[in-house]
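We emphasize that the prediction below concerns an isolated chain of 74 residues; any contacts that depend on oligomerization or on bound cofactors are therefore not represented. The input was used exactly as deposited, without trimming of termini.
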Amino acid sequence: MKLTVIISRGDEMLIGQVQEVPGVITQGENVEEVMENIQDALELYFQDSDVILENNIPLIDLQNVVLTQELEFA
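Result of the prediction step, given as a token string:
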């Protein structure tokens, strides 16, 4: 499954969100840390959820976007 990770600059840390899974949000000091934390957050989310991803992707605030990156999650 391919997911889009959007990383924005917060006040003190970088904030990572998965566009297709609005409940998965994390932070880190750098992009690598955010991506590691996103992996952990996704694993926990899918363990505790029976949510099915749909094509109806919610819009998120892109004002402070630093990076968007696709993530292969297995």
